[in-house]
Every structure is written in structure tokens, then in C-alpha cells.
Amino acid sequence: SMDSTLHYIHNDSDLSTNSSFSPEEERKSKVQDVVPQALLDQYLSMTDPSRAQTVDTEIAKHCAYSLPGVALTLGRQNWHCLKDTYETLASDMQWKVRRTLAFSIHELAVILGDQLTAGDLVPVFNGFLKDLDEVRIGVLKHLHDFLKLLHVDKRREYLYQLQEFLVTDNSRNWRFRAELAEQLILLLDLYSARDIYDYLRPIAFSLCADKVSSVRWISYKLVSEMVKKLYMASPSTFVIDLMNELVEKFCRCHKWSGRQTFVFICQVKCLFVYIFL
């Protein structure tokens, strides 16, 4: 009986997408042969929201923290056992539970592979992007790690949303903007010269004018790396336009702070080498 059940689970059909399961089929969809089934059933039962209210309010958070390890143990072929539980935790009313998942979604993507990530994790990821700042910081800190696992076309869709990270629930949360600048430096390797110029350049210039010096210093490094990336790309019109904009916006700025910004940007990576080529 167990063999026939496992054969039913491991065939090519995607049971997790069928919403018309009977209770018996639902039970079979969570059968696997990696760990004792009773142990997995106990873990899955702990994510029941009603249990969290009556037994332990922190239990859902602990389950969320352990989920990548459980997924790694079971393997991607048994993701159907955890998919419903993951979606339940991702929509949990406690932001600490969602925050825990947000910080580990990039690790789960590595475990599941590109196809399951695109189908099951991307919708959750998109939800986290619109969540509270306490949750958004989780996906922001590992934005590069997650986006690099996506297909190029899917990855480009997030270019339109990067600017939303400039807006936070608390404007004094400068660490959020500093982390954005750090991630943009890494994202330069994932996008074309045109995408960098059209989408990442305006964000970088905005960060260079931030009120907090720590954010500005990271942004200077971002702009210098952007110049280097565009200089190495073809055609060279993007780097020329970027250099002209830097000169007009900062070097010839009527405020001393703007001119100082230009000097700092040049100082980071000896940008004068690119200016006078």
C-alpha cells in the first residue's frame, strides 16, 4: 500500500495545483519516504493557526525558521508536502513569522530550483515586497541572491519595483536605504547597460543626495561601480551620458555639498581615469 502511494506521489502530475482534493487525497499528497511520516505530520500540524493561539504564540515563528531545513531534508521532489504549509506561514497574521520567511526565501529558492521558485516562491516574494518594512528588509537584504536565480525576463520585471524601496514606513529608517545601495552594487552584474542607465541610475542619484552620510558614502561607491560597468559595456554612449550628468548635477552644482559629492565619487574608484579617457 505504501509503495503504491509513493508511486502516486512521485509521478509527473502536480498534485499541489489541484484544489479539488478529497481528504484522503490531501493526506496522500503529504506522504514521503525520507523521514518518518509521523514526524512530518507533527511538524505540519504545528503550523495550524488555531494551535498557535491556544498552545504557543511563537510556535509558527519556530516552524518558519525551520522550514528551509525541512525542505532541504525532504528534497525538492517532496516540496508538495510543504507547499501548503509554506503558504499558510507566508500569510500568517504575525509579522515576525512573515519576516522569518522573508529572510530565508533565497535559501529556499536554491533548494527548490528555478521552476518551483518561479511557480511557488515568486508570488510569495511579491507579497513580501508590499509588506511592512520589518518584512521587506528580509527580501531586500538578499535581493541579489534571489533575483539571480530567476529567468532573465522575470528578473527584469523587478526593475520597475526597485524604486519603491526608497519609500519606507519610517523616513528615519536610513539603514533600509543603505541596504538598498549595497544590493544595487551587486545587481549591476545582473542587468544590461541600458537597464542600469534607465532604472538603476535615477535611484543611485537619489541615494547620493540622502540626508544620512552613511547612505551617501555607499551610494558614491554605487555610482563609481556603475560608471565602471557602463564603461566596459557597448555602446559607450551610456557612460558618456552618465559622466555628463555627473558633471552637470554635482561638479557644477551651485552648492558646495554637490561639488563635494562629485569629489567623493571620484575618490572612491579613481573616477578621473574614466573622465579623461
From TrEMBL:
<dbReference type="GO" id="GO:0005737">
    <property type="term" value="C:cytoplasm"/>
</dbReference>
<dbReference type="InterPro" id="IPR051023">
    <property type="entry name" value="PP2A_Regulatory_Subunit_A"/>
</dbReference>
<dbReference type="InterPro" id="IPR016024">
    <property type="entry name" value="ARM-type_fold"/>
</dbReference>
<keyword id="KW-0677">Repeat</keyword>
<dbReference type="GO" id="GO:0019888">
    <property type="term" value="F:protein phosphatase regulator activity"/>
</dbReference>
<dbReference type="InterPro" id="IPR011989">
    <property type="entry name" value="ARM-like"/>
</dbReference>
<protein>
    <submittedName>
        <fullName>PP4R1 phosphatase</fullName>
    </submittedName>
</protein>
